[in-house]
Amino acid sequence: MGAVISVERLAKTYENGVTALRGIDFNIQAGEKVVLLGHNGSGKSTLFRCMSQFEQPTEGQVFVEGVNLPSLNKRTLRTYRKQMGIVFQHFNLIYNLSVMQNVLFGAMGRTATFVQVLAPFATSQLREEAMDCLEQVGLAHLAGRRADALSGGQKQRVAIARMLMQRPSIILADEPIASLDPKAGKEIMALLTKIASNKGMTMICILHQLDAALEFGDRIIALKQGEKVLDAPVGKIDQRQLSWLYDIDEKEEGVS
Ligand SMILES: Nc1ncnc2c1ncn2[C@@H]1O[C@H](COP(=O)(O)OP(=O)(O)OP(=O)(O)O)[C@@H](O)[C@H]1O
Ligand SMILES: [Mg+2]
Question: Which residue's alpha carbon is nearest to atom 28 within ligand 1?
């Protein structure tokens, strides 16, 4: 079976002259759980943004299910982007709205317009689906609560439910546990990996927590100063490689 995501010779130099990515290549198969590691500034978020085409790569290709995203027009690109559910460090909820309303927004663009996902207008079918997504993250009982009246772990669960409402086949999670305490962080990683396994989704997750990377990933890809320096199954990675990766003497900026 072909790769779900193929990245070929991907490079990104920002307008300020910082080269954040250099010659990145990898293939990711359906259902793989990949953890992306690397120093602050090593290019991880830039790689995510180039993969989802929110940032235009300077060179190289990104194929999602065989389709080269940089070659698509805006409309077709939107269709392909819907396959990618993105989870952020800071949850990106709308805090003065209810949990249910935030989850309903996940359907926007997939089956519904902005007005159709607004709580007073949403169909009972959409609401049922949103409740089902909330059940999957264990928060159905909080559907009516305002999003700002939740703990960090609960906010991330709402963000995951909203992502599920989008029905993506790929999860891109950029430091999903960086704002959470260790217990809540582990719970969120366990939830994300369980959902990905149950639904056969492919997951790529940026982490700074090595223990979580080794516990929840199948494979680790690591960047250093914009280059891929490690790509191996978790079982083949030893402590020495990880210590080298996080060598605190290394220059932390991108290569300019
Ligand atoms: N919009 C931008 N314009 C210019 N330079 C940028 C931009 N975004 C990122 N950079 C630079 O590109 C390099 C890679 O940044 P990026 O955010 O991808 O790293 P990261 O690995 O995600 O870091 P962190 O772990 O801190 O989130 C850094 O040197 C950063 O300063
Ligand atoms: Mg980042």
Answer: 41
Ligand 1: residue of 10, 12, 13, 14 to mutate (most ligand atoms within 8 A of CB) is 14
Concatenating the DSSP letter of every residue in 78-93 gives: HHHHTTEEEEETT---
pLDDT tens per residue, range 169-203: 999 999 999 999 999 999 999 999 999 999 999 99
Q: How confident is the model at residue 250 (pLDDT cuts 50, 70, 90)?
A: very low
**Local structure of residue 23 (DSSP, 8 states):** E
- What band does 247 get if pLDDT is binned at 50, 70 and 90? confident
Please choose, from the candidates 117, 97, 100, 101, the residue with its C-alpha nearest in 3D space to the C-alpha of residue 109.
Answer: 117
Tell me the two tokens of residue 39: 């120093």
Task: Report how far residue 156's alpha carbon sits from residue 179's, in angstroms, rounded to the nearest whole number.
Answer: 10
Nearest atom (ligand 1) to Cα of 49: 18
What's the CATH code, domain 1-43+54-83+200-256? Answer: 3.40.50.300
pLDDT in tens, 146-160: 999 999 999 999 999
Residue range 234-250: mean pLDDT, rounded: 79
Pairing assessment for the beta strands 227-233 and 67-68 based on DSSP bridges: unpaired
